[in-house]
Amino acid sequence: MRQLITIKLREGNVINGNYKYVDGTSFASPIVASIVACMLEANPALTPQRVKRILIDTAERVPGVEIERQGWGVVVPRKAVEVALALRVI
User: Fold this and answer.
1) What's residue 68's pLDDT?
2) By C-alpha distance, which of 63, 57, 65 is closest to 23?
3) Residue 36 near residue 51, CB atoms below 8 Å
4) pLDDT of residue 25
């Protein structure tokens, strides 16, 4: 029985009782939206085009994953917010 449960958890991408591995745009969108909110809090003057450019420029490629699967890479929240803040005109 224990072995069967272990197999089912692994198939369901369960990491532990509190975490599950997920991917895709339905999970990426809220994460990116929260990063954008932080960027806009750091610099309310950012345009949508500038926000997009910062996200692209600060993303990091994932080694060993084909570009078609990762797009521009993984967002790096700290870098994106730091760039947004650096562009702020006081």
Assistant:
1) 85
2) 65
3) yes
4) 79
78 Cβ neighbours under 8 A, 6+ residues apart: none
Beta bridge partner(s), residue 63:
none
Taking the C-alpha atoms of residue 71 and residue 15, their distance in angstroms, rounded to an integer, is 25
List, for residues 22-65, the tens digit of each pLDDT value.
777 788 899 999 999 999 999 999 999 999 999 999 999 989 88
Q: What is the pLDDT of residue 61?
A: 92
Q: What is the pTM of this model?
A: 0.73
Say if CB 50 and CB 7 are below 8 A apart: no
Tokens of 33: 């939206």
H helices present in 1-90, as ranges: 2-11, 25-42, 48-58, 67-70, 77-86
Contact 73, 62 (CB under 8 A): yes
Instruction: Answer for the pair 76, 59: CB distance below 8 angstroms, yes or no.
Output: yes
Distance CA 25, CA 86 (A): 29
